[in-house]
Amino acid sequence: MANPLIPPLTQARVLPLARIRRERAMSVRGEVLVTMGSRVGALDVVARAASVGHLSPVPLARYMRTTETALSKFLRKQVGDDLVARDVIAEKPELFGALKRAYRAPGNGRITALQGSWLTMDLLDAPFELKAYYRGAVVNIISQRGVIIEATGALVEGVWASGGEAYGGLKKLVDAPGGIVSGDAIDVSARGAILLAGAGVTKDAIERAIQEQAAGLIVGSITPQIKDLLATVALPTLVTEGFGEIPMALPIFELLARHGGEETLINSNTGARPEIFIPALSSTLSGETALPPSTLNSEIGAQVRIVSGPLIGHIGKIADAPEQPQVLESGVSAWGAQVELLTGSQVFVPWENLELIG
After folding, report:
1. What is the model's pTM?
2. Assigned fold of 53-124
């Protein structure tokens, strides 16, 4: 029976073995390349969309250094003409014919309009290919969009991510959850890898990871300055704890460290929490049965993580739910729980500073 003193808490899943289903779909219509029941690897292309056009207006008269009324006599292409990249659209002699000023097509497409001094082109993007990323079996087809894949493996939910998706072998850079990664810890072996850090990374570590073409980064926490830097670079990153200098939760670090060298996925496009997924190979299951993640219950004995306050990042379990609000050091009264930490000590934590983890 649920304890009326314990409210529902947010959940962070950390599972060594789970069976999950994930949708992989394109934002535009295209062709699905696999069938129901197909086994797919992480890098297999499951759907493809043809080139999609985008309108590109340009102030052509200004580029050609001419007037709106004179522009037409310099055109080599007309409205409706197809374009191949580098085709000459307009050409104008200069210096008494000794030189020519030209405007060339920036890509394939066609000319759609010429209004005054502005030329509009419909340029084609490269075809889009959707990769599976989750190694597993196709259990449903989304017509002309993509698939739903059932996969088995380790699952870790983070609290923040940037940069989209990343896939590569997991490379551990620290030996403890509180380790800070600096640039000298990253070398050419980082190429194509998902890097595992601890409590943080330095600016030069981010720059070195990009230079060595790392695929992505998993870290316990980042400073606001590093967060701002990540917004400007192409390095998919997942944060497991929060912002500041917080050691990665021990259960998360130990789970990921056990999978060093294995293929790993960072996905920040799940619609809920960003996640890390490490597929389980059949040789590693050892007779274990993978089940779908079950809902965690807010109850006495439930494992929780402190998500705010001076003990942020600590793991423990709900030991008691006091029947009256407790007075904090700040003098404010709050409802909360007595939490028994991994060290064996007990602390009172307001409910809003706790989440279920497991």
Report:
1. 0.78
2. OB fold (Dihydrolipoamide Acetyltransferase, E2P) (2.40.50)
